[in-house]
Structures are given as C-alpha cells and as structure tokens.
Design a protein that fits this description.
The complex is a heterodimer.
Chain A lengths: L3 E4 L2 E4 L5 E7 L5 E8 L3 E10 L2 E4 L7 E6 L2 E6 L8 E8 L10 E2 L3 E5 L1
Parallel strand pairs in A: 2-11
Antiparallel strand pairs in A: 1-3, 3-8, 4-5, 4-9, 5-6, 7-8, 9-10, 9-11
Chain B lengths: L2 E3 L4 E5 L4 E3 L2 E3 L6 E6 L5 E7 L5 E3 L5 E5 L4 E6 L8 E9 L5 E4 L3 E6 L1
Parallel strand pairs in B: 2-12
Antiparallel strand pairs in B: 1-4, 3-9, 5-6, 5-10, 7-8, 8-9, 10-11, 10-12
Classes of the chains: A mainly beta, B mainly beta.
Chain lengths: ~120, ~110
Amino acid sequence: DADVTQTPRNRITKTGKRIMLECSQTKGHDRMYWYRQDPGLGLRLIYYSFDVKDINKGEISDGYSVSRQAQAKFSLSLESAIPNQTALYFCATSDLKGGFGGELFFGEGSRLTVL
Amino acid sequence: AQSVAQPEDQVNVAEGNPLTVKCTYSVSGNPYLFWYVQYPNRGLQFLLKYITGDNLVKGSYGFEAEFNKSQTSFHLKKPSALVSDSALYFCAVRDWGGGNKLTFGTGTQLKVEL
C-alpha cells in the first residue's frame, strides 16, 4: 500500500461545484503539503501544515481551503470550482526529524478537471 | 525569495550516452537543493539532495549532481543514460522565507532514445 494516498485519483466536475481532495499518510510525518502542478509551471504550493493546529497559506491559496483532521489526514477543498483550477494536485509529507534537509514524499496525484 | 530555473523544457539523449539536466538557483541563505523525478501518472520521487559537504552528490538510480557555488548551479548528471530514465525531472530549493517548504523549478522532460 502507498504511504501517501490521495482520493480521488481523477475527478471531473462543473464550474461552481464544491470539491474535496483527500490525503492520508501512514508515514507518521508531522508535516503535510498540497501542491498544484500545471504544465510549464512546475509545482506551486497551495497550503501546508506542520501539525494539526498549524495551517499556513502557500503561494497560491486563493480559491482553496484545507483541513487537517488528524496527523495523518489533510484535505484540500475548492468551495466553488472554476476552470482554471483544472490541474494535477499532489499531497506530500515530510518528517520533522529531517529538519530543513528532509525530503518530501508525494502521493500519486489527483487529476481534477473543471468544465 | 528563493527560486530555481531549469532552462531546458526537454533534453534528448541516446541510450548509453551521458546526460545532463541543468538547474540554476537563487537563494538568500544556505542553498539546500533537491532533485525529484516524476514518471508518467506517478507522484514525484526524491533522487538526491545537497545540504553541505562534498560538491558531488550521489543519489538513486545512478544519478549524481554537482553543486557549483560560483555558478549557482546544481546540474543533474548520469554517465550512461537508459531508456527507463525518460521522465520529468524537477529541481527544487529550500525556501527560507518561512516554514520548511520547497520551491520547484518548471521541470525538464528527459527523453532517452535507442
């Protein structure tokens, strides 16, 4: 089983709908992240969380919200989806013990299409 | 602010030949640099990192990277490319602006042909 699991893997929705992308991890890591990947733009950080009570905005948080329900779960919500939110979304984790040199561990991605 | 640049959208190389994927960085503070690989329909996987010490860093699958402070570069290399190395490669730098985050480059598609 994957250490970082994202659901759904693929989703097609319509403009204005509310969408939730879920991430769960079995790595026991404190830190969790949501990134968005667009062709030619690389990965951009949406939100990150260093523990259940710590939520921080990344560089492109507008139009998104998150919830850290437990150490192992971090959800990303689009309250009212719009077509330019069509992208590949990645959840990632890192270990506090790794310090600033610790690497990220990624899920398989959730492909979202907003029509 | 931290940033990385990957000047080539795509690199083509013949199997068996050496490969280089370029990355330059800009950072205020110590440069903590990373390379990740993304295979089709998969998440990113960590390849290697430079934190401190030897400028030549060895990583997974026979890859290595050379840190060059004077040229602010961290190029990814492999002596002999394999078709299975074909993937999307991302360079990243630790963001010292707050929080333990990575800033990624735009990615370089590596295509290794027979």
